[in-house]
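Provenance and format

Records in this collection were gathered into a single text stream. Each protein contributes a sequence line and a token line. The two records reproduced below are adjacent in the stream.
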Amino acid sequence: MSKTLHHRACHLCEAICGLTIQTEADAAGQVQIVSIKGDAEDSFSRGHICPKAVALQDIQSDPDRLRQPMRRIGSEWQALGWDEAFNLVAERLTDIQARHGQNAVAVYQGNPSVHNYGLMTHSNYFLGLLKTRNRFSATSVDQLPHHLTSHLMYGHGLLIPIPDIDHTDFMLILGGNPLASNGSIMTVPDVEKRLKAIQRRGGKLVVVDPRRSETAAIADQHLFVRPGEDAALLCGLLNTLFDEGLTRASHLPVSDLDAVRSAIAGFTAEAMSARCGVPAATIRQLARDFASADKAVCYGRMGVSTQAFGTLCQWLVQLINLVSGNLDRVGGVLCTEPAVDIVAATSGGHFNRWQSRVSGLPEYSGELPVAALAEEMLTPGEGQIRALVTVAGNPVLSTPNGRQLEQGLGGLEFMLSLDFYINETSRFADLILPPTGPLEHDHYDTTFNAFAVRNVTRFNEAVLVKPEGTLHDWEIFVGLAKAFAAHTGAELKPTMAPEQMIDMGLRFGPYGDKSAHKLSLAALREQPHGLDLGPLKANLAARLKTANKTIEAAPALLLADLQRFADAPAGNPEQLLLIGRRHVRSNNSWMHNYHRLVKGKPRHQLLMHPDDLVARGLADGQRVCVRSRVGSLEVEVASSSDMMPGVVSLPHGWGHGRQGVQLAIARAQPGASANDLTDERQLDALSGNAALNGVPVEVLSA
């Protein structure tokens, strides 16, 4: 027997915690994982580890995980070889595009795509050959408003200022629960200790959420807010900053700030209080507290993005940081300068160059809102989607009106899934191509390093040897591209392995050949615990990509959306509203198939305030029927005083009881899918992002 220690980072969530993984080889040379622990010497995570990292061992040994291409024949699955699989895909997609046009083939890329650098570097090597405008991703059920706001204000959708959590005196969090998410567009391992450090140094943590979340529970102040009305609270805060002379001059070049001041003038705390449910006096005091802090951060995350005014909310968040003097300031919000700088290397993106065929929803950087995917399959006519490629995604459980999407998937001529599992979505596929597991390939975090609360970098070596007969995800895309090009005559550009691309990115980046660091992949490989390249610092003025190199404080699209918000009718105060929630053990639906992550008390109940239960004659623990415009489901209800009255909460990612799903552990406690209730018509009209929070529902005895 021989034991070996490996150092790498977990990339199952955005914390990218450093790990120490011990393996053991038996006499026959078979290698097994012995233990997974936090790496105390890691330059960023400092020994922190969450349950998802420990579950890497479960992923590796999961008997349900696919390890070779699988073709569906009726209701049965049969193994086939890689070359046969690649040729089948090329034949079917080429035929469908020849008969119905290029846009008849659609693409959906899921959240894990940004957790795996092979998907980031090589997916478009194949997908780009399809030349389809019907491209979708998990972006539009999550952070699209972040990207659109940065695109409009700063000239690049990835130029997103990050909270300088380690140096701030006041942190205001809206719609975020970093204790459960481990950050989320704020790469921050060990976030609980960092938040408590704010309090230890005399600062303040304030959380705004319709549920007293795990993060709210440790905050100095928690404010309930009516779902979908965060924009009212933010308008009231911004108005108060202007009205009471609480603004600070910025060192940044800014255009049209006077237009913002004028536009926000009527949105007083008093006028906004009735909409958001927060007393006017509390709104004003919160603005004063924020402004009086030496260094403050306003941070809005998924809860404020996935609502009807998500982009407006993210714009208001940026403006509050700007006018309070905390944008591009230590202790405020700053842009990370990653070792591989994807902002410097790419264009700023584009918006609304084309629209979806049926509902006319706008594209952003080549992707349409995923809320339109089902209707594009189900609506006959020229341009109807006839085939679909899914990459590391489960949209049946993660996008609005999952039951409607199932109907669309069932009517396709062909479907390909790149996935580990036969899940709620891939069960419809004609062919599933599984890549190697997370510990069987190397990795570099191109995305999450760009949103980190410090400038950090590390290269993660593979822990286990790639099994014979398997392919990395990037190798799958190369194989698909070659087969497709052979069928269509398309010209393929030369490519290289992801690690070679990272080496080039490091060498040409801010810490590369022309810097004192001389950073390269070879140099990084000598640092198994990663490198800390320093704290965040002011840099936004030099990195702006707007045409006039100034911050566009008042984009016309956002001023118009502010008027849309002003004109929106008041909600029905008697109407129950549904919100989602997240747990630290759950990031994606396939994580429910690991015993380490689902053991303990069930976490998929509907949470409801005790008064709302009594008013409907319901009891804690009973089965209830929850109805929305699009459908209904049955679920166990749990009484919780952590809920705002009038608000109920159901977590995403559950609903594993569907026929054909081959996830044994997940099926044993299937739960219900919140996206069987969310409404594909309920959107942020500006961006097209799905409004998953604030969904009107009824709750009745089952």
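Adjacent record:
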Amino acid sequence: MKKNTLVITGIAASLALLVACSDEVTEVTNVSEMVSLDTVKKFKELPKCEEETEGSVMYVKDSAKVYVCTGDGWTRMNGKDGEKGDKGDKGDKGANGAAGDDGASCTAKQTKDKTGFDIVCDGKTVGTVKNGEDGKGGDKGDKGPDGTSGTSCSAKANKDKTGFDILCGGKTVGTIKNGEDGEDGDDCTLTEGENGQIIVKCGEESVTLFKASCGVATYDPATQFCSNDKKVYPLCHKALGGLEPYLNPDGTYNVQGYFCDSSDLLVSLCVTSPYDYTTQFCSNRSIYSRCSSIAEGLAENVLKEDGSYDGMIYFCSEKGVLYEKCAGSPYDPDLQFCDKSEENPQVVAKCGGQTYEIKTQWCVNGQIESSIACCVKEGQNDKWCEGHPNSLYDIRNQFCDTRDGQPYKFTEITVKGDSGKVIYSETWMAQNLNYAGTGADESACIDCETIGRFYTWPAAMSYCPDGWRLPTMAEFAALNNAVDDGQRMLKLKVNYGWSPAGTDEYGFSLMQSSYMMDVSQTEVKSDGMRAALFWTSSPRTEQQISRNDAHYVIYNNESYSDNANSVDIGFPVRCIKDKN
């Protein structure tokens, strides 16, 4: 036999052509319209085959056969008569035809996406029957339940007399070809069941189709229902305590407020979302996982008997253990821990699976090590810090100036562009220089712990620690261009005496400093300026040299600028790390 091929759209068409899966109809191709097929229970109930009905197609249920009205009357769509072959016995249908193979037995199975049915003949998928969309009744076809308009179809013998062309709405939508000679295949029968079911049986195989449709999908009225939103929902048979009045006797419910969970239980939606009531619960308008045990240190009463808890404070790990959130956020307890040593708790990665004190320890290659070291002054031993506790420093964000055993904070500033490419990367001191030097007339101190010392320009040029240097005016400008957010440099904030240090995003920690007119007299001159000023190492012009001036920069919370002034005036110093 020829291989069966079938491409159909519409439930009505599927019922018409499934019965043709025996040896008599072996190929159906290019069917794309919505097809309907009139049926009668018995052959004798067929209407008269007259000139005005010639070409119409009817399905007879008791014999599971399809007939077409031709000039010779009602003609069964069957195999063509064959002539006597060289080999083989007399065929069942031909006069002396060659014996052929059995016809194919076909069944229909619902597609994976549930939008129709695959037609399977001899174990192979030969075509797909897709569900129709909503439509109004056609001019001649009857309207199905929420179904697509039916189209009046007829059949005419094709030009080469090998079968029949199917015409729907005046268009040829497919061809039913005659089968080759052979024995009868298993006939298909259609049985109407309850709730709009159609049971199609071909041989020993059977499949159940549903005439009930909802939007673009069909559904089983025995287990599902179609809601007003034209979507299919499962019927429910029991309700959560207190929700019994909201479950209708027929198993339907208001899908805007309720859903049927996996255990066939009617539950209220969590705002607008369904969830698995057996493993989840709704609290504070959010869905959380139920928990089975609590972490060490938590009170037992924070976990209720049903596994629920306050989702605003606690969370359930993947292993079903309840933990307290860290600053309002869940985390992975196997890989992270919540450090509460600071005012604002933070999530920290474990080191080799262990927690540690982040104030004094850090993780190096999976090992926990102390992050606190002693900044030893040149010529002193490790006991230096016993008498100078301020020389203890954190090596993660500070460096040691061995000239006087004084540590300084630093900040690594890296900025990326819109494409993710790094456009700026430099390391700056995060506090002002406080090295006294050797010249009494080169620097002065008023509030060294807060704003460092004030230096003359010659001293500033040579007093940065080893590995660091005085930045140029261009380097200050590059920093500001990189962090500028279009709001007049507000990212590099100047902190005044009543403001805490280190509040800006990049940890640059600018402090109001102003300048000193004479470092030898320690007289502070502010001129009412609420700003931070720094010397730069930019080359001086001939005019500046003649006037004994040098460049400096000015930061305030409104702008960044540069200027020049006498090299003998005292300005603070901020150093940049030397990459050379």
